[in-house]
Amino acid sequence: MIKFYAFILSCLTFLLVTTPAYAGRLLFWRYETNQNRLLFTTDQGVQPTAQLIANPTRLVIDLPGTTLGRPTINETYGGLITSLRIGQFDSRTTRLVIELAPGYILDPQQIKIKGLSPTQWSVDLPQPQRGNFPAPSSSPSTPSDPYNSSSNSNSSSNTRSLSANNSNDNNSGNNNTASGGNEIQVTSSGLIVGIDGDHRNQIKVDRSRDRKKINFEISNINIPANFLKSWAVNQYGVENIEITQRRNSALLTLNVHPDSPDWQGSFSRMGGFVLWPQGGISRVMDLSNNSKSVVAQSNVSPARGSINNSQKTLIEAIEVNNNQLVVRGNQRIQAKGSWATANQVYQLRMENTDLAPSFKSPTLPSGSPISRLRIWQPDDKTVVLLIEPALGTRINSPSQLNERVVTLPLSGYVSRSSSTPVTLNRPTSSSNNSQAVTNIPVTPAPNSISPFDYTPRDNSRPVLPVTNSAPLPNRPVTNGRVVVMIDPGHGGKDPGAIGIGGIQEKHIVLSISQQLARILEQQGIQVRMTRDSDYFVSLQGRTEMANRINADLFVSIHANSAGANKPQVSGYETYYFQNGKALADTIHRNVLRRVDVNDRKVRQARFYVLRTSNMPAVLVETGFVTGREDAAKLTNPAFQRQIAEAIAAGIIEYIKTNRL
Prior knowledge:
The chain is built from 8 helices and 41 strands. The chain is α+β, with helices and mostly antiparallel strands.
């Protein structure tokens, strides 16, 4: 019997040890283009880490112990901040990447990342500036090299100026001063055309039916007579650029490869019209006229070597496993490795080789020691692997496992799921490289205090208390405890009201609802939510949930709209139908007492969710997304936190008063 109990105890201990810890979730994010600010919310406390990576510039923010729970997200914006990518870096780390327009940098000293609470964070970015990128090493390059090439020039600058052909102007001698090599630049992330403008110049973009021309019509701009009218580019899938003066506008045309993605354009405050491909430069690296390539992710720059064999070796497979990269061929492989120092990319060059017909593009596993891998063929007898290591990875010299297998050892990498800190500097070669990665300090979240039974004075506001417990909407209801159904309005295909700057009601009310749910749970109240992320739920489905679990209270969270023509309308409202007036009065009073809002009173209305709920039900309109004053508040995480605390205080007062 003793042995039996010992066996049971051993089994329980094994289960406890091997059960994975619960990972938090990234619930909400929003990039505010007018403020250069990223806001994001998780469902439990997190301590982000951040690095600024140069050339091309991107800010990488990792959220340890957090999952995304959905496919990789890529949001594109017009301007110098071009896109936000969010994905799962490894099983317990969500990664956010903010990418800049080509040729621009951020001052790392001016990047401010701070915790408004352990679950709410803001990232404030300075205005991007035109960058002077370091020159590459003096290693040879060829015109077909994807990064280090220069056209009609001996310069090795990473940002190259193009010579131009003005077929429309016979007096080419008068154009020398105008061009000066500066009218167009090709950078590692796109193109810069030397015409100036600002936000007042409207830009209309369209593409021809054959997909070979992308036209940018720019209003209220005059092209000088001595300005060149066409430039040969022959890079990034762009054959050339043409510019034509119209009556009240200029037409800039990119002649592109038909497989090229759409391009975007924006004027820089530092001067110039910046052009970049949607989705990033990696999408057009394979469109060069003289090269073939297979992508597993991109970036880089090669060197030269030579070997002479009578028959080409066919590369049959490329794999990443056990902290090494493995290349397999059908016969002898000879490989040379070197660093492309300007781009912090390692190249493994294999002469007299080609890809086998059955070759499949390699995939990088989650948590791979390689963050980006590209296979580049500058000609029909050379294969070059362009490798960007993950943070902390060291790449050692290639070794010959046997004549048909070459391995590249990858050491020093630590999975981000490990508690061991990762070295954030990229590996360097023996030459003096510029620092490619800069650690960005993160200001910790403030200590939390209880917001309840507390009336703020002198406009001071309590801070949201956060613990590691998050509301779980699908958890069974426990008898004997109050159950509150929180209903974030709209969601999924239904954005709700659209406000100033394109803000959507569904995102705002979800953030407020999640914070409200967390506060109530921390006070011992059971909470269920009709939705806990961005998906659609019908009105009938919302009240059916509440009625099915016999909830004690139903609180629907919304934001209002008065239309685009009434930006002066703002304020907070609380609605009830029949049996929710006392609850509405209590919540409304607490909101007015704790939050600076315009009082639009408690009102009675026949909203579906109020009419069909079997318990006291209210619907709160937290503000007007179309209101000049309210829109700024509703997108402010501090305001969202305050109004969630105030609604929670009203619910708790009602529960205590009515002894639920």
